[in-house]
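Onboarding guide, step 5: your first structure request.
Type a short instruction followed by the sequence, for example:

Predict the 3D structure of this protein.
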Amino acid sequence: MKKLLFSLAVLCGASAYAQTPVGTVVNNFTLTDINGNSHSLFNYLDQGMMVVIDVSATWCGPCWSYHNAGHLNNFYNQYGPTGSVQAGAAMVFFVEGDPQTNANDLNGTGANTQGDWVTGENMPIIDLANQASFENSGMTIDYFPEMYVICPNRVIIASGVAGAIGTVANLTSLLGQCPPPASNPADVAALSYLGSLNHCEGSYTPSVQIQNNGTSPLTAATVTITQGGTTVSTGTYSGSLATYATANVTCSPIANFTGGALSVAVTTAGDASAANNSVNATVATALMAASQYVTVNITTDYYASETSWNIKNASGTTVASGGGNWQDMTGQQAGQTVQTPVQVTLSANQCYSFEILDAYGDGICCQYGNGAYSVTDATGATLLSGSEFGDSETKPFKTGSLGINEENFAAMNVYPNPASDAINVSFEAANADYSVDVLDIQGRVIASQIVNNVNGAQLVTFATENMAKGNYIVRIASNGFTSTKSVVVR
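The system replies with structure tokens like these:
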């Protein structure tokens, strides 16, 4: 449904859509343009060209605006195979990515078009009969206009909204970021770090993606990982890796790893270049909760129904979840909704991971509202948080032990629920002062009671006659600990 709002995406610049990410190594495609000429992606990459692909649809207004700006055709005229500035530096493709359109639409005479897309354009124009013929390369078609920029080593160096990255100036600057084509027999590169960037506790296993940038098959390579100048892990590759092919190397575990910066270096016999041998990664460690009680706080964007979350234990089993059925907003095209916080009881002294997902793949911030998420412990301390992500984001945390204060909070009960005349809050006190609050869905305190130096069973009652119908949060706080439960007033 968000495809109806792409004009906003173009006007507002780059966004966090679910396009194939930078750093991905693509596969080949062979496609035929509207003049009957066949084009192999790898054929151009093997000639040392950077390849630029604009995926648009003839009915798409923002695509038409980008097309009329002339950036793609101008870049092709300057840097394409017969370019006026640097001939053969790049290849450019215009791909009509909606199989339901036809040649008439491309020529401006059909029913699903913004105008004539062909006249005056010099780069090859490809009209897809099916999206799979393009997506088999590993590049997805997620929205229009979408752009991919690929270096000769098959690696995507830019992806996103065409209007944001596809100016002549920006594409020209990307030319200088591609590594030179393979020219030496032996040349291995550390392409990317694949290990988890979040770790809870105990042993940690690094993983690295390497690439053969040499003209001869790569048969052996060594990966060395250091931290603070000390070698903490190693790995080896053996086999036969063709030019530009990649392999994932799983390295030896790091015992009792506490996170931090890791430096990766890959080497092979006779390596021609050390410039591409290194990659760095910083691994964050989990924060520890005060106990086994945590609260999940989610503020969704306009498209709340796309958002869901899970908490998984160390074995990957989901032990708590939520969302997936929240209501989308209506009317305006952007906004946010504070969802009712969810308190979760977990096992003490265990590692967990919190996963948030967006079904469309553009996260919960910031194009369609200022969404955000956090997981807090019983003291209100934030264990993890975030807002901008693509399809999903996962972060670890660890629970602590049940304390006497929270043992009393564990007996907290809010009833009746739903409530009509009054909200009753019961809990066990332990010779302490307690603050009992009722908050609206925006987090504003609308009623509050203080009970001082109390012990044993307590009951606090709030009349609902001045409360609007809807969702509320009841919060108890004492000695730095906080517990919440949701309640509905009808």
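Each response can be followed by summary notes, for example: The longest strand covers residues 422-440.
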